[in-house]
Amino acid sequence: MMQRRKFLQMGSLGAGGFLFSKNLKANFKNNAVTKPLVITTWNTGIDANVEAWKVLSTGGRALDAVEKGVMVTESSINCCVGLGANPDRDGIVTLDASIMDEHGNAGAVAAIERIKHPISVARKVMENTPHVLLVGAGAQEFALSQGFQLEPQKLSPDAEAEYKKWLKTSKYQPVINIEKGKNETKGQTAFAPMKLSNGDWNHDTIGMLAIDVNGNLSGSCTTSGMGFKVRGRVGDSPLIGAGLYVDNEIGAAVSTGLGEEVIKSAGTFLIVEFMRQGYSPEAACKAAVERIVKRTGVAKAHTYQVAFIALNKKGETGAFCVQKGFNYAVYSNEINNLLFDSKYLYTDGVS
Ligand code: SD4
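# N-hydroxy-L-asparagine complex -> structure
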C-alpha cells in the first residue's frame, strides 16, 4: 500500500481523489470488500475515524461507529466542536447535533447547553422518544432525564481568548471556513494532528458517514455552530435533510460551512436524491454546491464556504466545496485513515 505521506502529497496535488476512487473501483471489480468504511469532514476526522474504525473493523454497526467517532471531537477541549468551542455572542456555548441510522430513523438536538455529548443525546431522542428534534432547555432537561450530566458553564481558555478578541469589534459577519492548519503552505493542506489551538482552524463542525460490514449506512453531525452567533441561532447540522441525510438504499451525505445556505437548499437530501439519479458521490456533492451558488449568485458565493461529503451504498465516497481549503478523512481496509483535499469552485479563502 502506498505510504501515507506520498498519498497525502498526491491528494494535495489533486491526484489523491482520483487514485482513491480508482482504487475503490478496482476493488469493486475484484469483488474485494470496500466496506466497512468511514468518511469524516475536516482533519479532526482523522482522530474521530480511529474510534469509528474500532467499531467498524470488529463488525460493529455503522450507527455505533458514527456516534463513538464524533464523541472524540466533542470531548476535545481545544477543538472547534463541543463545549470547548466558541460561544454565541452572549458568551454561551450552544451545541447542535443529529444522527441517522440505516432504517431512516433520525434524532437531533439544537441549542443545547452544558452537555458534553450532544450526539449521544440526539441518539437518545431517536431511540427513546417519538420525536426527531428537541431544542434548548427542553433538550437539556431530556438529556438529564437520560442520565447525562450537566457540565460547568465555563468557556475553554482558547474560546475565552477568542471571545474577548471578538468582543472588541463584535462584528457579526460569517467567515469563510477553511482549514488553516500550521502545516498548510500555499493553500495545500497537509496532515495536521487534532491538537489545534484556536486560529489553526476555522470551522466548528464534524460530520461523519459510515458503511458497516453488513452494508448498512449511518451518519452523524455535531457542532457548536457559527462562532459568536446570535443567541438561539440554529444551523443546518441538527436539521435532517439539511446538515445530514441517510437513505440506506442509496447513500448518505453530511455538510459543513454556512448553515443558512445549506438549510435553504436542503443540501444533503438533495445530494442523496442526485445519487439516486445515478450521480457519483462527488458529482452529487458538486451539483448541490452549484445549486447553492446559483441561488445565492456568484458574487455572494465568493464570501462563504459550504462543503459536503457523501458516501453511496457501494462504499464509494466523494466531496465538493465552494472554497478551497476543505478536507476530509477516510478510513477503510484499503485507505488507512488518509486526509484528502476536496475539489472546489473558488479560492477566496486561501491567501
Ligand atoms: C453551522 N454548518 O452551524 C455549521 C457550521 C460549520 O464548520 O459547519 N462550521 O452553520
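# post-check
The radius of gyration is 18 Å.
The CA atoms of residues 111 and 131 lie 16 Å apart.
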